[in-house]
Every structure is written in C-alpha cells, then in structure tokens.
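[READ THE FOLD]
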Amino acid sequence: MPITDTTPPNDYARVADVGSCDEHARSCQRQRAVMQASDIGARPSVSLSQHEVPVEAPYRLDLTVSVLRRLSTNLVDVLTEHGEYVRVLAGSRKPVIARVAQVRSDMLTVTLEGEERARERALALVRRMLGVDRDLAHFDRAAAAIPWLNPLAVRMRGVRPPRYPTLWEACVNAIVFQQVSLHAASAIMHRMIVALQPPHDSGGVSLYQFPTAAMVLRTDDGLLRKAGLSSGKLATLRRVGEALAAGMLDETMLEERASPDAAALLREIKGIGPWTAAVILLRGLGRLDVFPMNDTSVARNLALVAGAAPVDVEGVLHALSPQQGMLYYHLLLARLETRATRGEP
C-alpha cells in the first residue's frame, strides 16, 4: 500500500534539470559518439542493429526513465551518466540488450544487441515501455486548467507513462513496494535480483535481467527471505507466479477487461488489495484511468505541489480522467525535483 518516495537528489538531478529537450539530446548524441569511437577495436564483434524511433515532440527520455526506475539502485533499468537508457530483455533463447538514446526532441535511437530473431519483439517492447505512442493531449489540456498543477505539468512536459515489459515484473514491483519506503523496497529488490540472476557484462558494465516467475517459484524460501521479503509478500509472489504458470492469469485477460474489472480479477489473488491492483494496472498495463489511492506519499506530494491552494482530490481526478494516472507520475517527479533542489541526502 503506501510508499515513501525518499529518492536521493542525484537521481533526479541527472535526468530532470535539463534546459531543453534539443540541448539535452545534442549533448547525449555527442557523448554517445565519443563513447562509440573509443570502443572501436576494444570490444569483440557482436550482433547489433540500430533503429530510429520517431516520437512526438516534446518527448523526454530522461524523465520517462526516471519515473520507470525511481531509484539509481535499480539494477534492471539503467540510466547512464550520458543519458542512455540500458535494459536487458528476454529473447527467445538468449537475452537482448537494448540501448536507447535521445538524439533529437523528436527522435530516439534504439540499439539492440543479441539474436536477430528476437529483435523485432524487443523493439516493440522498448516502444511500449517508454510510452512512445501515448497521446497525452487530454492530460495537458486538463492540467493547464488547474492553477496549482499547471506549472508542474509545464516543467515536466515530455514525460510519457512508462510500462514494465511483463505482467510478472509489474506484480513483483507492486508487491515488494507494499507498505515500505522506496529505499527499503529497492534494497530488497536489489538483493533478490543479485541472488537470482548472474550479471551480463556489456562493455565493462554489469547488467541484470529481471528474474522470471519460474526462477522465483523454484528458489528456496530461505534465500528469498534473506533478501528481505516478508513471509506474506513471498506467499503473494508465489501465488501470482503459480497463477501465471497455470494460465489462470495473464496480460490478455486484463487487457480485455475495463480497469475496474481487471482490478477485481487481480484482487482475487490473496495479498493483492486495491492499491496494489491499481499500481499493477498503471505501471504494468499503462492504464492511465487508474490512480493509486490511500498512498501517504500522494497526500504529502499534493501538499508540496499545491502549497496553500485548496485541493479537491476527487474533483481533480475527475477533471484529469481518463488520464488521471499521469498525476501520480507528476507528483513523483515533483518530489524528486524538490529533493534535488534542497540537496537532501
């Protein structure tokens, strides 16, 4: 349920304190060119393909990835100091490493390293994960009419709703982050991933693939408890994994249902309540028509953004509907921005 967004300032400072999309993109492009030039002859030959992905400007890769990863301790979603997003995705036999850079305000480049037959699916996943095709015109118009929200929406213009690549990953994140701070949950996730997955070395950088449901199901309880999972969360993860393995739950079942019905289906699994179901739908299926309520950080962040202005939460959510989920992401970015400004540890 409630989470505490206590993200260190450097996480946000690297991704949000950028003057303009084009300026940031040109800088990233120059840095990337230097890196690639310096790598010539230094790495063994690998199977690579590069793809240009047009995006509707303004688009902010840095902000979108910041919302996806939340903390720099995230081992799976990596944002380099050069502004490149790196992620290991599942392939048909071997994993695929995806590298995404923003070369212009209206263009991303996606470099895929791995087996050729898995690249088409990997490229589609990257597009979906980074919200490339999402239209937020309604949210932008509605936010502009809310005096306390408009300045934040203007500063964060270009963020898109990110999405986990699998339902399993969405469920694990939502469950692990129940009722603990972001730092505590991230530490648990960190230990669990290291315990279950060997790193992939890519140019001297260790990258981690998110553990599959099968890995968790066959892992001894003791090892997972040592990572910090409570017995209740571990039991819930196992129930989700078993439901997915048995075909009693899958992404298609949720996609074909309206959000209230999809949430009800998720809540049939013991350990998944209203908050967890909403987070799974928002972060896992990109359902912007949901908003995780009863989250203590939401109330605190609303007060941070609105200041002394009165806030009718229900009225605001109604005005932003059916894209009220974007408010959740904007409030997270506001908290990260504030911590960076204050220089808090």
Observations:
- Strands lie at 48-54, 78-79, 85-89, 96-104, 107-113, 200-202, 205-207.
- The longest helix spans residues 21-39.
- Residues 1-21, 30-45 have pLDDT under 50 and may be disordered.
- The longest strand covers residues 96-104.
